[in-house]
TrEMBL record:
Organism field: Alloyangia pacifica
Gene3D superfamilies xref list: IlvD/EDD C-terminal domain-like (3.50.30.80)
InterPro entries named among the record's database cross-references: Dihydro-acid_dehy_C (IPR042096), DiOHA_6PGluconate_deHydtase_CS (IPR020558), ILV_EDD_C (IPR056740), ILV_EDD_N (IPR000581), IlvD/EDD_N (IPR037237), Sugar_Degrad_Dehydratases (IPR052352)
Family: Belongs to the IlvD/Edd family.
Keyword vocabulary terms for this entry: Iron, Iron-sulfur, Lyase, Metal-binding
Name the record gives this protein: Dihydroxy-acid dehydratase
Keyword RNA-binding: no
Molecular function in Gene Ontology: hydro-lyase activity; iron-sulfur cluster binding; metal ion binding
Signal peptide: none
UniProt xrefs under SUPFAM superfamilies: IlvD/EDD N-terminal domain-like, LeuD/IlvD-like
The Dihydroxy-acid/6-phosphogluconate dehydratase C-terminal domain, residue ranges: 364-558
Residue stretches making up the Dihydroxy-acid/6-phosphogluconate dehydratase N-terminal domain: 42-354
Length: 577
């Protein structure tokens, strides 16, 4: 259904008027070698590309841009590639999370300030999906998300290796002296074999699945391996489809509804999602004016079985296997009756229509509901006197013996302090000890780093232990595993109760009751609170100051207060220039 005409395209504001400003715009396009018929009266599509030579997950994006452009041209549009902040997970210090909101701001402002009628968002490495989507939601023009796709399975000495998960596993074995340097180097060379995102169900695959389930990608696009020829075809399809979406005026507000956000949460739970999904999903939903809460996610988690047998929550398989087993469409087909299939998607069709014909080809990878990997969803939300505003744990990825646990706290105020202790072979610690790291949240980290999978102390590793209860106000990588309580809110750096915990205090986790408490008398907690002093701010200048002043806590999605949809003036562009 066509709603837009050449005269009503957004880009016509730049190119159509017979005035001096538009003369300048047209002449500058001609400077680039284009004739007026190339760009006037056609949908102008911005291809927002998060490629960089230090973003290994997006190293194929330079070629994929050409596929997108081909698709746009075939559909009668005009594509322009625009570089976007390339927030990569591997190299960014102190943490990529510090820059998710910067990417969101850049995305919104680049779209708003340029003559674009629609955008293709090219991302995939963890923070790029929420960053691009959050910005594009606020910009409000038609958009389609092009996921980078997972890399191929890792391989070394006949063993399949999974991103992140096997790195941690082999690192522990190396620390215990169980593998040689040669084996360690073999793992290093074999664990990342191609372009694409981490190929476990880590944050990247979780977030692209969420975008897919929200209706923002072509159906099932998130599962296609980065180097599969199908990925090139999907890229060209994105180009064709976004051009049609512009004529249809199919804007994100028609797609990202309350029901679409709930669909995304249900699908995330069924995939065994990364704990990071909680933070990003809440932030994305809020940009769209949807008030998704931690309690909503816990309720959806309790009622959704985990059916993707993909590491780290699943035992055996990786994203490449998931694709061959039918991919996300097949998984969604399995849980179709738990989804609102009437939701509109970028195809212009409903979610239900997109799922027609989807099939599972390997029911050990994508399990039937009668044989789930884990009977509940993969995440649980805790509350208690240690985390009044919530904390998150991934029960499916930890030893069930920690579901009910009581033990003495061993508290660290900084990552270096904790790191020195875990390498001390004489550290006094027992398997019941609860290791705690604080000052690692959004403001304290700074930037909410992925430190939450605290390393198991050498002293315990040598005794054969590979898991223990750990608590922090940090996040953890989606490829991590273990009994790790994360995202404790409010964080200790701003005076959350974790700041008041002391080594030796008894901590109790009761997963069934969704409680996390320190067994310390109320009056003692009050006395400690009265004596607590706020630490110095982490930043004295620059972007970090803005981050610290405006970032919200984990339970609110860590967006900046002034970027949320309910801040001050309504979303939209001031049409005054
Ligand atoms: Fe990019 Fe894992 S490092 S997705």
């Amino acid at each position: 259904m066509t709603k837009k005409t050449p005269d009503t395209l957004r880009s016509a504001r730049w190119f159509a008027p017979d005035d001096l400003r538009s003369f300048g715009h047209r002449s500058r396009m001609m400077q680039l070698g284009y004739a007026e018929e190339d760009f006037r009266g056609r949908p102008i599509i911005g291809v927002l590309n998060t490629w960089s030579e230090l973003n290994t997950c997006h190293s194929h994006f330079r070629e994929r841009v050409q596929d997108v452009k081909r698709g746009v041209a075939q559909a009668g549009g005009f594509a322009v590639e625009m570089p976007s902040l390339s927030v990569d997970e591997s190299f960014t210090k102190p943490t990529s999370m510090l820059y998710r909101n910067l990417l969101a701001m850049e995305t919104e402002e680049m779209i708003r300030s340029h003559p674009l009628d629609g955008v293709v968002l090219m991302g995939g490495c963890d923070k790029t999906t929420p960053g691009l989507v959050m910005g594009a939601i606020s910009a409000g023009v038609p958009m389609i998300y092009l996921p980078a796709g997972p890399m191929l399975r890792g391989n070394y000495a006949g063993k399949i290796l999974g991103s992140g998960s096997d790195a941690w596993k082999y690192w522990d074995e190396r620390r215990a002296g169980n593998i040689t340097d040669e084996e360690w180097l073999g793992v290093q060379g074999g664990i990342a074999r191609s372009a694409g995102t981490c190929m476990t169900m880590g944050t990247a695959s979780t977030m692209t699945a969420i975008a897919d389930a929200m209706g923002l990608t072509l159906p099932g696009a998130s599962s296609i391996p980065a180097v599969d020829s199908g990925h090139m075809r999907m890229s060209a399809d994105c180009g064709r489809r976004i051009t049609e979406m512009v004529w249809e005026d199919l804007t994100p507000d028609q797609i990202i509804t309350d029901a679409a956000c709930r669909n995304a949460a249900v699908v995330a739970m069924a995939t065994g999602c990364s704990t990071n999904a909680v933070v990003h999903l809440i932030a994305m939903a809020r940009r769209a004016g949807v008030n998704l809460t931690l309690d909503d996610l816990d309720a959806l988690g309790r009622s959704t079985p985990l059916i993707a047998n993909v590491r780290p929550s699943g035992k055996d398989y990786l994203m490449e296997d998931f694709y061959y087993a039918g991919g996300l469409r097949a998984l969604m087909k399995q849980i179709e009756d738990r989804l609102d299939t009437s939701c509109l998607t970028v195809t212009g069709k409903t979610m239900g229509e997109n799922l027609e014909g989807a099939q599972v080809f390997n029911d050990d990878v994508i399990r039937p509901l009668s044989n789930p990997v884990y009977k509940e969803g993969s995440l649980a939300v805790l509350r208690g006197n240690l985390c009044p505003d919530g904390a998150v744990i991934k029960p499916a990825a930890c030893d069930p013996k920690y579901y009910q646990h009581e033990g003495p706290a061993l508290v660290f105020d900084s990552y270096p302090e904790m790191k020195a202790a875990v390498d001390d072979e004489d550290l006094e610690i027992t398997p019941d000890t609860v290791m705690v790291l604080r000052n690692a949240g959004p403001q304290g980290g700074p930037g909410f780093p992925e430190w939450g999978m605290l390393p198991i102390p050498k002293a315990l590793i040598k005794q054969g232990h590979r898991d223990m209860l750990r608590i922090s106000d940090a996040r953890m990588s989606g490829t991590s595993y273990g009994a790790c309580v994360l995202h404790v809110a409010p964080e200790s750096f701003v005076g959350g109760p974790l700041a008041l915990l002391r080594t030796g205090d008894i901590v109790r986790l009761d997963l069934d009751a969704r409680r996390l408490d320190m067994l310390v008398p109320e009056e003692e907690i009050a006395a400690r609170r009265a004596a607590w002093k706020a630490p110095e701010p982490r930043f004295g200048r620059g972007y970090g100051v803005m981050f610290s002043r405006h970032v919200s806590q984990a339970d609110q999605g860590c967006d900046f207060d002034f970027l949320q949809s309910d801040y001050g003036r309504p979303t939209g562009e001031p049409d005054i220039f």
